Amino acid sequence: MRNDKLLPMIVTLVSLLLTAMLPAGARTNGSAKIPYPGGKHYMYRLTLTDKLPSLHMMSNPLSFLSAKALERRRRQGISVDTLDVPVAQQYVDEVEKLAGMKVVSRSRWSNTVVVRTKDAAATDRLSQLPFVSDVRMVWVSPDSIVANPPRPKYHTEIEQRDTSIHASHGVAQPQLDMVGGVKLHERGFRGQGMTIAVMDAGFLNADLIPAFRDINLVGYADFVVPQSRSIFTEMEHGANVLSILAINKPGVYVGAAPDAAYWLLRCEDQQSEQPVEEDYWAAAAEFADSVGVDVISCSLGFNIYDKPFTNYYSYWQQDGKTALISRMASTVASRGMVLVNSAGNNGQDPWKKIGFPADARDMLCVGAVTPERRNASFSSVGPSADGRVKPDVMAQGSPTKILSERGTLTSVMGTSFSCPIVAGLTACLWQEHREMTALQIIDLVRSLGDNFSHPDNVYGYGVPDFSR
Question: What's the predicted TM-score (pTM) here?
Answer without folding.
Answer: 0.93
